[in-house]
User: Which sequence fits this backbone?
């Protein structure tokens, strides 16, 4: 405790100010604040924050994928093909078509005598089978299946949840860093430290050593 308000050209208040300044300067909180300040004020951080907060979801690849999937999901012919592709009727017919009995379909008399042949004949000439042939070699079913496979992955689900969220910025680590930075900026010691003139502090220290 100092016995007088002024000694060697410095007031007691000046000395206390210097001591506090140097203590804050070495504190973990100030070091954290300065590191965050450098990060948050960087062009890279500012640009990322702007993009995440303002980028239109409809401009993302996630939206394009989700929209295309929805479009194909609502394609009745495609969905009919996919359902038919897995059906027992088609599998039985394709198995029959690969057998020697398939040639019997060209014989009307043979077909007339057999219910099984009649069913196969009718299926081969059905709109369903024509649709199957139309889509069988198409790229559309392959595209749909690829989309389904992609959208089932945890990575895509996470990406979709992120970009479709209008408050996505608040879900990021960077947002938490920004919050921490603002909290530190309000600390009394840091407010005090930032208000000081380093040159003035150095001058007072020099005076204190006289």
Assistant:
């Amino acid at each position: 405790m100092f016995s007088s308000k002024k000694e060697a050209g410095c007031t007691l208040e000046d000395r206390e100010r210097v001591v506090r300044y140097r203590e804050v300067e070495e504190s973990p909180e100030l070091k954290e604040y300065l590191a965050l300040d450098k990060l948050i004020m960087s062009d890279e951080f500012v640009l990322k924050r702007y993009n995440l907060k303002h980028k239109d979801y409809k401009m993302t690849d996630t939206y394009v994928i989700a929209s295309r999937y929805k479009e194909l999901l609502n394609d009745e012919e495609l969905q009919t093909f996919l359902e038919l592709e897995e059906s027992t009727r088609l599998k039985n017919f394709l198995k029959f078509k690969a057998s020697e009995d398939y040639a019997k379909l060209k014989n009307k008399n043979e077909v007339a005598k057999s219910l099984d042949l009649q069913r196969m004949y009718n299926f081969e000439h059905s709109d369903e089978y024509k649709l199957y042939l139309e889509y069988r070699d198409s790229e559309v079913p392959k595209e749909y299946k690829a989309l389904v496979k992609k959208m089932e992955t945890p990575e895509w689900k996470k990406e979709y949840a992120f970009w479709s969220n209008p408050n996505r910025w608040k879900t990021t680590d960077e947002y938490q860093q920004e919050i921490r930075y603002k909290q530190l900026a309000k600390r009394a010691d840091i407010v005090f430290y930032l208000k000081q003139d380093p040159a003035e502090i150095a001058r007072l220290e020099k005076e204190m050593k006289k």
